[in-house]
Design brief:
It is built from 2 helices and 15 strands. It is mainly beta. The chain has a single domain, classed as Beta Barrel (Thrombin, subunit H). It has an 8-stranded antiparallel sheet with strand order 6-5-2-3-4-8-7-15, with helices on one face. It starts with about 35 loop residues before the first strand and ends with a strand.
Length: about 300
């Protein structure tokens, strides 16, 4: 609290969501699908909808990590096969915050991208280093429906004593993506409870694909749910209970095989990139836009 009022700039707070169930509702509530997931009754306040500016088509998710920065997957920022997989420009996206139901705009904030910074080592063919930052041209108004999620400690500061990334721990993925491969996206935000998998198990599951330390994987316990088309760029989250539940983004939805949970979903391991995120944001704060040198990534900005 600040002067008796809630400080919405504090990261990871959401009174509506518990660390073990994701919501303060029974586990046997009616199920919808992220694929296999539960409909989110209340907003996850750091979730961002990314859609095409020209046609309004839903594209990906992103997350608020500060008042002017969003985190997403690098592959969300390229055009499709019919458009030559080119890099999209900042003007091709429309971003909306404060949504649970995409048709209910009562708490919506629309924001605009000033600059796209893809990780310089992103490899499109294998989705290695599948991470990007979006710098906004305005400041987000934080409130109950729009506030930042916390970032984890950097990878070199992690240990098994910290409640992140350990095998079989609970994590949640959220998104508006398709219920099944090839289907259209959904209007209400969905969430799915997963278990983080051991890296050895992940490598074995994807032994015919490129799977490296920039990635992590998580799986639905009953093998009938996973993130799917359109969920890309959204968060994989872990909730840690202190005085209240604090949510941390440990992964970014990146890729997978099918959408049915037979194999784990693969996520960009955010802890591996915390130093890069901090460097990009710090340099942007300390250097005026007019004199700013290239940021440590592949940057696109408005003309």
């Amino acid at each position: 609290l600040t002067n008796g009022t809630t400080d919405y700039s504090v990261c990871g707070r959401s009174s509506k969501h518990t660390a073990e169930t994701g919501l303060e509702i029974p586990d046997d509530s009616p199920q919808a699908r992220i694929r296999g997931g539960q409909e989110a009754v209340d907003s996850w306040p750091w979730m961002v909808e990314m859609r095409g500016a020209a046609d309004g088509e839903f594209l990906c998710g992103a997350t608020i990590i500060s008042s002017q920065w969003l985190l997403t997957a690098a592959h969300c920022l390229r055009a499709g096969k019919d458009d030559g997989y080119r890099k999209k420009s900042v003007n091709e996206f429309q971003l909306r915050l404060g949504l649970t139901d995409r048709k209910n705009t009562s708490h919506e904030q629309e924001v605009f991208i000033e600059e796209i910074i893809r990780h310089k080592d992103y490899i499109e063919a294998t989705n290695q280093n599948d991470i990007a930052l979006l710098r906004l041209n305005q400041t987000i108004t934080f409130n109950e429906f729009a506030r930042p999620i916390c970032l984890p400690p950097s990878h070199d500061r992690l240990s098994q004593r910290l409640p992140f990334y350990n095998a079989n721990q609970t994590a949640f993925v959220i998104g508006w993506g398709a219920e099944r491969k090839g289907r259209s996206d959904v209007l209400r935000l969905k969430q799915l409870k997963l278990r983080i998998q051991r890296q050895e198990s992940c490598r074995k599951a994807f032994e015919n694909f490129t799977y490296d330390g920039s990635m992590m994987c998580a799986k639905y316990a009953e093998a009938k749910g996973d993130a799917c088309e359109g969920d890309s760029g959204g968060p994989l989250m872990q909730g840690v209970v202190d005085d209240e539940t604090v949510w941390t983004q440990v992964g970014i939805v990146s890729w997978g095989i099918h959408c049915d949970g037979r194999k784990p979903g693969v996520y960009t391991n955010v802890a591996r990139y915390v130093p890069w995120i901090e460097e990009v944001m710090s340099r942007a704060r300390n250097v005026s836009d007019a004199a700013q040198p290239p940021l440590p990534g592949t940057a696109d900005s408005k003309a």
